[in-house]
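cron nightly-structures :: item 1 of 1
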Amino acid sequence: MFSTGSITLQERNKTKSSFVSSLLFRFCISVVAILIALIVSFNTQDLLGNKYLFLLPLLYGVLFFLMPSLWNHSKGNVGMTILNLVLFMRYVVSPLFRSLSINEPNIRGKVPTDTGLNYGMFMMIAELLVVFFVVELFAEKFYREKNKTRTLFRPLNNKFILTMVLFLGISLLLIFPELRERYNFFIVTEAIENLTLDIPLDGIILMITDLVFIIFPVIMIDFFKKKYEKIPHFKYVVFSLLSMLPVITFFKGTSRFSVVVPTIAFMVILLKLYPEYKKRLGVIIGSVLLIVFSSFSLYKQFGYTQGSDIDMSMNTNEIAYNLDAYMSGPDNMGRVIDLNNAYGSNITLETLKNDIFNNVALLSGLSDSRNTTSAWFNMFLYGNNEVTDQIVPLSGQSFLHFGSLGMPILMIITIMLMMFFDSKIKYENRIEYVYLYVYIVMYMSMAMMVSFGSIYPIFTNLFIPILVIFAMNRKLSLRKKNDRSG
């Protein structure tokens, strides 16, 4: 009886301590956000187009303190952690830099109107409310502790199908040299150009070659983990780390996410497989990722290639511009409003169909890339069809297709799906499925930063094909086991 009582008391004290620490942290962040709101208000009080900018950090601070689920469920959950970071950067950091450079000239593209900016900020406020309320209402259902026995590792008993797909992918890379030009080493030695492939079934071929960078590390990590279970030596942890090198050092096209997302997915796998080395693994992978990301960012931001001169000057205005562009801030949301006023009649059901199929392998031929919300957004921004480097915010797309009342639809669906897959990671013991869940969760948790075409084609281009391949591989293993036992 004493033992049971002491355990209950211990759990109660732990819960109380967790509640107090969460309350204190949320209070501190809320105070910071509200103080920044005051700074923003002081800097923008006389500017019509930015008079509501202070509401972004102010409302974030209030909601973050009053609605604890967003922060409380971030511990040990990749998606919720990233969502917290994105919200803080978008609603606190970005408005601060915007207010500090508010009188600086526009860097690129058409300046949104004051009306567009004001309505764009109200859309951002609506997004913030939607995210906090959805998480507060449903997070507990997804993240509550399940009565499951957690096992750290469930090995691959058979690799036949995985090996066949790996062989096919490597063969395609050898047959079509132009495919190899799509992958760039992180130390950039010359300017990178966007490639247009002129090969049959290019969508499916690209998908298969991309699988090489997933299947190879999965097979090797599985192999070294089995060795480690027999002889628990640190060298097998190192070998598992080295298996990630192709993923962590080669970019696909010019996208930094093509390295960051898979690296974090494999990092989560290694942390689950080798929990006794969590700190060391985190430091090593984090350091390498920082070096790789910084190297490629120097090229993306400053045009730096190995051996060239570099001018790294960046003022507050440029920081504010980049934050707005990457975080889909007031400027881009305001442009969505202005776009709707200018070209709204051209955005029809046909445009919605094009948005759905445009980036989907094998089905992109059904889409007219000149009639997508992204194409119209860039046309409005630059005044021509030649530059298409800016994305339409996800909620902006929802607004263009479904109107003001339908604006939250895509965000609600995305956050719900994110929590569903995010909650599975903790209990998943198959490394290949952990990779899939982390990969999809990372993109969905950054929904405010990306567009429909960046998130949902992942299901058809990567998630479902790999899920089928992994399921077939596991099924074959079970069938062979049953045949032997029979």
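cron nightly-structures :: done
The chain is about 70% helix and 0% strand.
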